[in-house]
Design brief:
This protein is an alpha/beta fold and about 400 residues long. The protein contains 12 helices and 8 strands. It has an 8-stranded mixed β-sheet, sandwiched between helices. Helix 3 packs antiparallel against helix 4, helix 5 packs across helix 12 and helix 8 packs parallel to helix 9. It is elongated and about 65 Å long. The protein binds guanosine-5'-diphosphate.
Amino acid sequence: MVLFLLIVGAVVVLLGVIAASVLVARRGTPPTRQPLPPVLHRRERPAAPPVVAPEAGTPPAEPVVQEPTAPVVQTPALDTPEKTSGRLARLRSRLSRSQGTLGRGLFALLSRDVLDEDTWEEVEDTLLTADMGVGATTELVQKLRTRVRVESLRTPEELRVILREELLSLIGADVDRSLRTLPKADGTPAVVLVVGVNGTGKTTTCGKLARVLVADGRTVLLGAADTFRAAAADQLQTWGERVGASIVRGPEGGDPASIAFEAVAQGTTAKVDTVLIDTAGRLHTKTGLMDELGKVKRVIERKGAVDECLLVLDATTGQNGVVQARVFTEVVDVTGIVLTKLDGSAKGGIVVSVQRELGIPVKLIGVGEGPDDLAPFEAEAFVDALLGDEAAL
Ligand code: GDP
């Protein structure tokens, strides 16, 4: 009997379990959490621009859909300096304006009916006035005289051709004017030292050169080692900020050599391509200051060789600039000349005399106060500017 009751109970329990599982199956599985569909970030439509009533007679303007303004960025926007290739071509007209008188003067003389002794003397005077220097002037006039006579050249076109050829050979069309601004073989930055007398445009040239390098894709660190002139470091900093170049500067009157050293050290750590060092506008007559420049160079060289030492000369100072240059070359190994303010001088002949006297190539020229008014020197473009298009007879 007990066994019978146990069997009946077991059957009842079994039926109950079956009934319950059927019920659950009918209701379905409990829901799992589905990920919400992603929220689509739609561009908020900007507020409609104020509707301006059209003037009588004009058709109603199309509605303008303004793009949302970009979020405000706190860092100042950087300039995009102009690419260097072709810069001189752009600046040529400015150069022609200041230098064209030389070409016009020469053409006027050479196209006279009779090229007598007096005329050739006038040609010489014209070249000397343009600061060509005595040696180069004598050589050029002799060559022109010979060619005019031997080749029987008289037409304006012929004269233009020989004048262009002879000027180009004096300036040196094949001279290496490249700037060594790429990192050294060991990966440390190229070091460029910028020297020159106060007021020649040294700091400005440093700033412009930083732009030239940035335009060519380089990274630059500036060293404000001109602690002599109060505003120089601020001036340089402003130039740097405009193109994203950092600066190492020290207190006013501080030791320029240690700032220069620190600039090279920081440039090496930051792995920049070029460290550009502005130095004090030392007066070449003051021996102490020249000694200091020598010290700046020696101290830098403990950290790494100076790759390029650019001497900035003001073209408006004429032959005096050549005298200055010579003094600098005795203290530092000048590798290139930067001739500034060629826009404000009719003395383009200084390019010839400075190169000839010192055997150092002009590598850059400054032709204005604008930030991109510095161009790599190209002999052909320069001679064409010197002769000027309008000078063709
Ligand atoms: P620094 O004392 O040698 O460092 O001379 P600055 O860089 O302060 O320049 C002296 C003045 O020369 C500034 O007013 C510059 O704007 C100006 N300057 C520099 N380069 C040129 C140039 O190529 N053309 C002209 N017109 N002015 C220039």
